[in-house]
Design brief:
Helix content is 30%, strand content 15%. By secondary structure, the chain is an alpha+beta fold. The longest helix is centred in the C-terminal third of the chain and has 37 residues. The mean pLDDT is 80.
Length: 336
Amino acid sequence: MAKDKNPKNKRSTVKRFLKREEEVFGETGLGGTALREPRPHYNKSEEQMYYSHKNSYIIFGRDRNASKYSGFGGMGKHRSDAIDIVVGLASGHSKDGPPDKNVAVNPNFFSDAARVYITQKGNVDKYFGLAKGKEIFSTKGQSAVVMKADHARIIGTNSVKIVAGKGKMTKPGKFGEKNSQGGDEEHTYTTIDLIAGNYTEDSLRNPLKGFDFLGKRLEKKLQPLVKGENLVLCLEDVYDLIQKCFSYIQRNNKDIVYLYTALQNHFHETVVPTPIGAFIATPSAPLRAMVTPFKRRAIKRIVNTKLISVNANFSTINYLSKTGSKYINSKYVHTT
């Protein structure tokens, strides 16, 4: 039987197959075809507009994190425009997923699946329930961009920079770049907080680990990062001090061996009959027997201390040298 080479006939065959499949199995979504699933309806405020397809939204309007009365937009504040890009509206509403389209829902920064939120004036730390870090600035009344999802990635095929601070300008003025509200920031430094677990509160140290519980000494949850090169300099100084201590220990051990040797060779005058009736001096046998094991241990300490010193030198090379196999600094990640 000859094959049908007419493309129109092939397309009609495929259409008949898909139609038949839909009649048998319903809407499956295979190959990008239609798929029925519950989709809520966005509770739009008067000034908002949005583009949507399925459960994906791009919402234009004013700052809003929940109901129509939430955020700076809900309070009627000027210069509080916002863009909310969200997928999976009310996705975490329940284990069964979002409600159907007959239910109108507000934006929810905790139960929506993923979003990028851009606001001209808002309070994003409060909206997203973020723990307080070391930052000296409040997000209240400030512009912000927030990305949130189950998993978030920032990928740069060449590099990635996370910068906190004002931009470099040719004519910066007294305080440099202004903030989003046109104001000056007089602070001389900025901060970057990397917080895992969204918890930064200090806690009392565990008394079982030897710390004074009654003294209420706190263990800080949020602590500063270490500058690698300064750490290397610090550890090099520590290793130098250790080597000096080793050298003093070596000298002490050698002095002890010298003393033990002198005690071993110490002579006491002893009357010993001889054919010519003369007196001779001999080492003290009890003293020699007592000193000998101490001398051996001192000699062993000299050897062990020398080996430890050599190992410390190798450790310095391995951890503190850029060519070391276990160099403590990253070649690719840097911080200020």
